[in-house]
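User: My collaborator sent over this chain with a note saying "see what the structure looks like." That's all I know about it. Can you take a look?
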Amino acid sequence: MTIMGRDENEKLDLSQYFYAPMQAVDVKEIGADIPHGGMDQRKAHVLAREIFPKMGWTKPVAVHHHVLMGIAEPVKLETKDKLEQVIASKMSKSKPWTAIFIHDTDKQINEKLCKAWCPEKQVDMNPVLDIAKHVVFHENKTFKIERPAKFGGAVEFESLQELEKTYAHGSLHPQDLKNAVAEEISKIIAPIRRYFETNKQAKEHLETLKQAQVTR
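Assistant: Without extra context I'll predict from the sequence alone. Here is the result:
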């Protein structure tokens, strides 16, 4: 079973064969009747749905979503399957510099996006444009990018296609795109971040998770 951006023709270590069953049994251990995850977890969840009833366990209902690319340079694979490349390059909490967390501060988001991989004029496999597509335009009908007058001034896009065309033409600088995406992401997650700041129980739980991640 291929998972985690692994090509089915590649030689796998024994630990990689263990990975899918461990991901499946994790659903049972955490008591999730409705496991939620990226499309990269679909095979593990299908495995759980097929096997759990045979073991007398509750058959889970899985919910999947698009896997956001990490903001570091994409992993290069021999496969031509774009989805496999995206999965292999996904945001990961084990690589915090590749991910934007819902509890990140405005400063952290700006710093991460400033260092994000975003080649000039490149639309394909561009993680900053991926965020614009699946997060910014998901929450907003338009996307406004503020720029100094000497660089063309503010510009507003009404569709992803319009944004990609302008970027591919070179009429939009990568740094201007990064700054605007960082600002929009900060606005979108602001209510979530505020919840963790004002809810004592949620704040304590978050700090426990952060500490566990540091010591792991």
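A starting point for your reply to your collaborator: Helices lie at 14-29, 42-51, 82-88, 106-114, 127-139, 160-169, 174-198, 200-215.
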